[in-house]
């Protein structure tokens, strides 16, 4: 039967799982699995996989029905089962469950608690239903018809509520803009002596924002696909890519600016500042979305006002700090 338990959040794995699936102790043989299937087949809601448990009911492995009938009856299932089981927790969002099933090409996703005790399974029918609903929801959201949470209908929504929903982000942007202006003003002497630096502020800020936004998109997507993402390994990989991109782009800027302005010092400042700004985007592109995810906040918010303000401030500070040290 499907578990309908109000203790689990709506659209969570706990709400969608079923319990009537074949499970067996890891000491069993293939012959015992066949006997279980023949005896209980009418009671099972799903028979895509056999779930292998230990004495404490912890999930230790999984075995497909196909493998059961391919193997000899006396073969121990412990030697045949797949040990690296893809599983989810009861509070995992249904969209992540469906994405995991697609990514790993599995027909059903087991649900376990924090101690890996087996609780149930989300079947292929449910996964297809989730994908169908989420696809429609995403299409409607893109078209501006729907979004998660309440819908702000400006004609029906009280002005006070509409203001409450919009104003905080604008105030945040205003504060960030004033802070960035203060940073620029603190380097007024350097800017006055080398006015050409002002012309490149948009370029430095844009490139760092672009690289950061690019990383954030990948980070948000990969967090959705992989619940057990090894952040350190992922961060190192992205850092190597950022360094490579930074070297190529800053070298190109150095060559072009030297040809156009024939000022080696200015070109050197621009290229070094651009490289450092791109490297700093690792913070806003990776760390901020990761922290949002850890605190169970929507990581997509990290690619919006918060990351933009932080990155703009970092880019400007790096730019003028390097200029003041070199020029």
Structure description:
The chain has helices at residues 13-16, 30-40, 65-70, 77-80, 94-104, 124-142, 159-186, 188-193, 196-199, 201-225, 231-261, 264-294, 305-326, and strands at 23-25, 49-53, 59-64, 88-89, 109-112, 118-122. The strands form 2 sheets. The protein has a 3-stranded mixed sheet. It has a 3-stranded mixed sheet with strand order 4-5-6. It has 2 domains: 13-134, CBS-domain, CATH 3.10.580.10; 159-326, Orthogonal Bundle (Tetracycline Repressor, domain 2), CATH 1.10.357. It is elongated. The N and C termini lie far apart (73 Å). Helix content is 62%, strand content 8%.
Secondary-structure content class: mainly alpha
Intertermini distance: 73 Å
* Pattern of helices and strands: HEHEEHHEHEEHHHHHHHH
How much of the residues is beta strand, in percent?
Answer: 5-15%
* Low-pLDDT sequence parts: 1-5, 139-151
Summed up:
The protein is mainly α. It folds into 2 domains: 13-134, CBS-domain, CATH 3.10.580; 159-326, Tetracycline Repressor, domain 2 (Orthogonal Bundle). It has helices at 13-16, 30-40, 65-70, 77-80, 94-104, 124-142, 159-186, 188-193, 196-199, 201-225, 231-261, 264-294, 305-326; strands at residues 23-25, 49-53, 59-64, 88-89, 109-112, 118-122.
């Amino acid at each position: 039967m499907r578990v309908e338990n109000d203790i689990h959040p709506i659209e969570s794995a706990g709400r969608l799982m079923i319990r009537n699936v074949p499970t067996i102790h890891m000491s069993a043989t293939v012959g015992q699995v066949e006997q279980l299937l023949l005896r209980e087949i009418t009671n099972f809601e799903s028979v895509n996989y056999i779930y292998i448990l230990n004495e404490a009911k912890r999930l230790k492995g999984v075995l497909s029905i196909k493998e059961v009938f391919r193997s000899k009856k006396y073969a121990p299932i412990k030697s045949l089962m797949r040990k690296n089981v893809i599983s989810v927790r009861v509070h995992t969002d249904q969209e992540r469950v469906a994405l995991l099933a697609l990514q790993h090409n599995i027909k059903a996703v087991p649900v376990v608690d924090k101690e890996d005790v087996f609780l149930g399974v989300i079947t292929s029918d449910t996964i297809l239903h989730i994908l169908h609903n989420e696809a429609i929801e995403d299409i409607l959201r893109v078209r501006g018809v729907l979004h998660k949470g309440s819908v702000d209908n400006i004609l029906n929504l009280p002005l006070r509520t509409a203001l409450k929903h919009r104003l905080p982000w604008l105030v945040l942007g205003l504060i960030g803009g004033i802070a960035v202006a203060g940073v620029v003003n603190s380097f007024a002497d350097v800017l006055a002596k080398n006015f050409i630096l002002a012309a490149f502020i948009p370029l430095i800020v844009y490139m760092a924002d672009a690289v950061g936004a690019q990383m954030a998109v990948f980070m948000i997507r990969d967090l959705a696909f992989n619940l057990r993402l090894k952040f350190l390994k992922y961060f190192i990989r992205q850092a190597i890519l950022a360094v490579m991109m930074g070297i190529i782009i800053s070298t190109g800027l150095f060559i072009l600016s030297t040809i156009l302005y024939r000022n080696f010092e200015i070109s050197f400042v621009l290229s070094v500042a651009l490289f450092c700004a791109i490297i700093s985007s690792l913070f806003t592109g990776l760390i901020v979305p990761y922290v949002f995810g850890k605190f169970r906040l929507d990581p997509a918010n990290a690619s919006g006002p918060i990351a933009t303000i932080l990155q703009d401030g970092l880019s400007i500070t790096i730019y003028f700090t390097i200029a003041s040290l070199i020029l």
